[in-house]
Amino acid sequence: MSIKRIGVLTGGGDCPGLNPAIRAIVRKADRENIAVVGIKNGWKGLIEEDALELSLRAVSGILPKGGTILGTSRTNPYKERGSLEKLKKTFSALNLEALIVIGGEDTLGVASKLSKEGLKVVGVPKTIDNDLSCTDFTFGFDTAVNIATEAIDRLHTTAESHHRIMVVEIMGRYAGWIATYAGIAGGADIILIPEIPFSVDEVCDLIKKRHTGGKDFSIIVVAEGAKLKEHDLVLQNKEKDAFGHVLLGGIGQFLSKELERKTGYETRVTVLGHVQRGGTPSAFDRVLATRFGVKAVELVIAGKFGKMVSLKGNDIVDVPLEDAVGTLKTVDMKLYDIAKIFFG
Ligand code: F6P
């Protein structure tokens, strides 16, 4: 029996590329005579039966737009009692035959569990953090890297004029992908990532060496999840979200103060924050999201549920959802070794 009606939702932190993915799903589904229902605000919309029909008209003009026309949330249906039952009821009430879930580790983690309970789901990986396993890249990452790179370029000129140390704090949660890519692309003098705990003294030594060598300014890229050796993570807020995550951020400020105190060089900090997540997607992200969206519909038609679309080399393939959400994909040390050649 061929599928005639599917749902789509976007969950977790938004990122550039969500709208191109939604558009691709609706356009491809239309070609196959499949109706698409947009679920509002991630799993929350499925729990609360908040949905709308996605016509071709509804997705017209959204390709270059950041964010998600469906809205998003970090709602975890496994957290609140009764939510799962409501979610499944909505699935039937909306006459959905399958659901395409666009999300990161948390949202796809829920999709994977639901799939094991029999729900027909297909996953699409998105996140600026690029920390999902089983795919070379997630969409959103390239745009975030471009934004962070441009920021580093801009900080370079002002750092040089004022002979200052510039610390730039970059998102990425527990993985240093954005920091590493943007740091390499922007020519950072050191890149501090969660994968490798650091000491302030090591950073000071490197900066002093630069000064001795005649370079009286430095660009220090620090990932928000970077850890000091023998020190707890620096946090904005200890409260945990529905998926058990704390709000990272603050390491840049801490490091900046310490560097100024210990080296005596004037230091400033820039926290890039959500600027990295907003705005128009890069061409790379638009293309990747489009390819992912089309492939997701193809998987639905082929009855390949419990899978996630993935980029492997130049190909879009499918992988088991549970493999993708099992472990976090951290920075490839071969890449970090290349970055290290340019430190100091
Ligand atoms: O996962 C994407 C991300 O932007 C992380 O890099 C960051 O730690 C987190 O989301 C911020 O979350 P929020 O949008 O809740 O502030």
Brief overview, please?
The chain has 344 residues and is α/β, with parallel strands linked by helices. Helices cover 39% and strands 18% of the residues.
Folded structure, characterized:
It contains eleven helices and 13 strands. It is of the alpha/beta class. It folds into two domains: 5-139 and 281-326, Rossmann fold; 144-277, Phosphofructokinase domain (Rossmann fold), CATH 3.40.50. Strands 3-2-1-4-5-12-13 form a seven-stranded mixed β-sheet, with helices on both faces. Helix 1 runs parallel beside helix 9 (283-302) and helix 7 crosses helix 8. It is elongated. 6-O-phosphono-beta-D-fructofuranose binds at residues 13, 104, 127-129, 171-173, 224, 248, 277.
Biggest sheet character: 7 strands, mixed
Question: What is the 3D form?
Answer: elongated
Structural class: alpha/beta
Please identify the top-level CATH class of the largest domain. Alpha Beta
Summarize model confidence as the mean pLDDT.
97
Number of E-type strands: 13
CATH fold-level label of the largest domain: Rossmann fold
How many independent structural domains? Answer: 2
Helicity level, as a percent range? 25-40%
Beta fraction of the residues? 15-25%
Cα radius of gyration in angstroms: 22 Å
Element-level helix/strand string: EHEHEHEHEHEHEHEEEHEHEEHH
